[in-house]
Amino acid sequence: MGKKVKKEAEPPPKDVFDPLLIESKTAATVVLMLSSPEEEVLAKACDALYKFASKGDENKVTLLGLGAVEHLYKLISHEDPIVRRNAIMVFGIMASNHDVKKLLRELDVTNSLISQLAPEEDVVIHEFATLCLAHMAVEYTTKVQIFEQGGLEPLIKLLGSPDPDVQKNSVECIYLLVQEFSDLHVEALAVLGNCLEDVHTLQLLQQTGGLKKLLSFVGVSTVLDIQKNAAKAIAKAAYDSEIRKILNEEEVEKCLINLLEIDNDGVKVAASQAISAMCENSASKRAFGLQGIPQLVQLLNSDSEEVKEASVTALANLTAASPGNASAIAEAEGIEPLVNTLNAQRDEAVANAATVLTNLAMQELFRVTIQGCGVMSALAEPLRSTNSQVQSKAAFAVAAFGCDADARTELRNAGGLQPLVELLHSRNAEVRRNACLAVMVCASDEVTAVELCRLGALDILEEINLSIGRKNNFSEAALENLLDNNLSQRYSQRGYLSSSNIITDGFYDCGQIKPGVKFLSLEELSMQELTDRRAIIFINAKPREDVLAVEEKAQDSSYEQTLLSPALSRKSSREKTRKGKGKKEEEKMKEVTEIMFKVQDLESSHWLPPPDLILLDYINDASKAILPLTTTREQVVALAQFVANKMGGSIERDKLHDFSWELHISEIQFELKCNIVPIGKVKKGTFYHRALLFKVIADRIGIGCSLVRGEYNRAWNEVELVDDSPQGIVGLLLPPQEYIVDLMFEPGFLMKQGSAEADQYKHI
C-alpha cells in the first residue's frame, strides 16, 4: 500500500474579513460600537451598557456625557428585536436619573416607547418600556405627552400581563397620570415654574398676559403649596438677569412681600429666598427696601432657624452697596435682632448677620448704635467657628467696628483677640486676609497691639509675609501697625524708630532681641530677679498729680499697716512730701519709687510701673528753654547739649573707656532692686541712653528725629534739616539733608549722613 498523502485545507476566501473578538474595558468604546451596522455588535453593546448603568447613578451620568442616550434613541425602533429589546432595557434603567429624563423629554421618546407596548412585543420590552414611562411620568409635561400620544390605553391593557414587573410599572405609570386631575392648579404651577427658567418662554407668557395672571393668582390663592412653589419658581428663575428684568416689570416684588405675611414657615423661606435672588436687580432692591425690610426684620425673631437664615440672607443682599436699605433696617429696629442673630444655630445665618451689620457700619451713626448693643462681645464666638464663611465674615465685621477704642476694649475683654490671632493660621485665603485686616485695625492702640503681640500675632504675620502664596494686601500693613503701636518691640526687633514713631509713657528699651526669643512685657521683666545683664531703660513721664494720687493711695488706711514702716505715719509722710520740693531730683525720685514698689508688692496681680519725675522735669525744662529758639537747627543743637549735660557731659574720644557708665547703671539697679531703670535716674549715660533721651524729649516738644540702634551699645539720632540758601539766591527751596547728632564728644555737632565723622560716630 502506498503512503497516504494529507490533503491540505483550502485557504479562506480573500474577500472575507476574519471574525474579530473585541474586549473593551471602557464605556466610551462601547458607546462608539452603538454606531455599528452589525446587529450582533449592537446587541452586545447595549447589553454591556445595561449592566454598566445598573451599577449606579454615576455610571448613568457617565453614559449621558458620552452621548449614549442619543445613539440608543435611534435603536429603540431598530428592526432587529434583540437590538430593540436591549436598547429599551438601557433606557428603562437610565430614566431614573433626572438629567437623563430631561434629555429624553427633549428627544420626545414617549411616542416611540408607547409603540413598543403592542401585545405582540417581547415581555422584556414591555417591562422596560413601562419602567421608562413610569420614571418620566413624574414630570407634568410628560404626562400630557403620554395622554396626547394615546399611551393610557395600552398601559391599561398591560395590567393583564402575566409578568408582575410589567403590571407593577403599568400601575405606577397610570397612577402618576391620573394624579393630574387631583389639583390642576398646583400641577399647572409646576409647569409654569419650569417655563419661568426659559427667557423666551417667559417673554411669551408676559406678552400673552399669562405672567401677570400667574402672579395675581398667587396673590389671591390660599393654597400653601401654590404659594410656596410659586416663590420657589421665581427664586429659581431670578438667577438670570433677563428674567429678573421681566419679573421686575411685572412688579413681582409686591407678590413676594405679600408672601412674607403668610403664616407658614415654608412660604416665608421660599419668599425670602426669591427676594435674595431678585436683589441682583437694582430696581427690585429699591422696591424691597421701601416695603419689604420691616417684614424681613420681624422674621429675625422667628423660632424657626430656617426662616431666620432665609430672612437675614435676604437682608444681606438688600444692604450690599445700598445705604438707603441699611437705613431702613435701622428704622425698622433691626439692629438688636441682627446682633442676636450672631448667636444663631445655622452658620449661614451667623455669616449673613455679620455681613448686614458690616454693611450698616459704613454709616457712623449706625456703627455707634451697633457698638452700644455689644456687637464685639457677640462676634467673639463666631470668630471661634470652624466654618470658613463664618470666620471670614466675623473677622471682616471686627475690622469694621475695631476702629473704635471702646469696641477694641470690649473685644479684648470678651476674649476675642485669641481666636482672631488663630485665624491668621487659616489655609483659607479670604479668612486669612480678613483676619489680617482685623488685626491691622485693632492694633491701632498700644494696649491692644501689645496684647496681639503677646498672643503671637507678630510672629505669625512675619511668617505670612515671607510666603509669596500666603501674604496678602493687609498682612504687611497689619505687621507694621502692630509694631507702630508697640514701639518697645519695634525698637527691640528692628532697631529703628522713625520720626513718626512717637515714644510715649510705657516705652522700654531692653536691647536687641534675638530671633526666636519671646519678647517679654514690662511686667514680666519686672518679676525677674536682679541680674548683671543689660538694664531695661524705662520711659514714664507721668504728671505729678498722677504720682501723688498713687502715693495717697499708699497712705490710705487699708494700705498703711502693710506699706509703711512704724516711723512713717500718714502725717510724717505728708510732711516729707512737702519737704520733698526742696530735695534733689535723685532723692525725690527715690522716695516716689520706693512707694511705688511697695504698692506693687501689695497689688502683685497688677504691676504698677515706677514714675519718673526727673524725666518730667527734663521735658518741662527743655520745652521752656528750646521751643523759643527760632530754627529747627538751633533747637536740635540746644537739645543735644541739654541731653549731654544731664547724662555726664561731653567725653573725650580717647577717654571713652574711662567713662564708667556700667557701674553707675548697676548701682541704680541695686538701689531699686530691679532690672528696670527709669531714664531720669541715669546720670552717666552712653550712646544708647543719650540717643533714647534725645528722642523722648524731641517727640514731646515737636522736633522730628529718628532713633537708630547700632552695635556694641551704639545708638544715634538722625534729623532732617534744610540748609541755608546760597548767597544771592532768594527763595530757593533746597531739599532737606540728613544729619547725625553728636551727643557724646561735641554735643550739638551735626554730622552729614554718610560722612567720615558720622560713620566714625556710629561705629567703634
Walk me through the structure.
The chain is mainly alpha-helical and 764 residues long. Among the domains are: 155 residues, Leucine-rich Repeat Variant; 110 residues, Leucine-rich Repeat Variant (Alpha Horseshoe); 68 residues, no CATH class; 123 residues, no CATH class. 61% of the residues lie in helices and 4% in strands. The radius of gyration is 43 Å and the shape is elongated. 41% of the residues are buried.
Give a short summary of the structure.
With 764 residues, the chain is mainly alpha-helical.
Features:
single chain, about 775 residues, mainly alpha, Leucine-rich Repeat Variant, 5-stranded antiparallel β-sheet, 3-stranded mixed β-sheet, 44 helices, about 5% strand, elongated
**Sheet with the most strands?**
5 strands, antiparallel
CATH class placement of the domain at 27-181: Mainly Alpha
Whole-angstrom Rg: 43 Å
CATH superfamily name of the domain at 27-181?
Leucine-rich Repeat Variant
- Proportion of residues in β-strands: under 5%
Overall pLDDT confidence: 85
CATH architecture level-2 label of the domain at 27-181:
Alpha Horseshoe
Indicate the percent of residues in helices: 55-70%
Strand order of the largest sheet: 1-5-6-7-8
CATH topology of the domain at 27-181: Leucine-rich Repeat Variant
Low-confidence stretches: 554-583, 595-605
Straight-line distance between termini? 126 Å
What is the number of beta strands? 8
The number of helical segments is: 44
The secondary structure category is mainly alpha
Shape: elongated
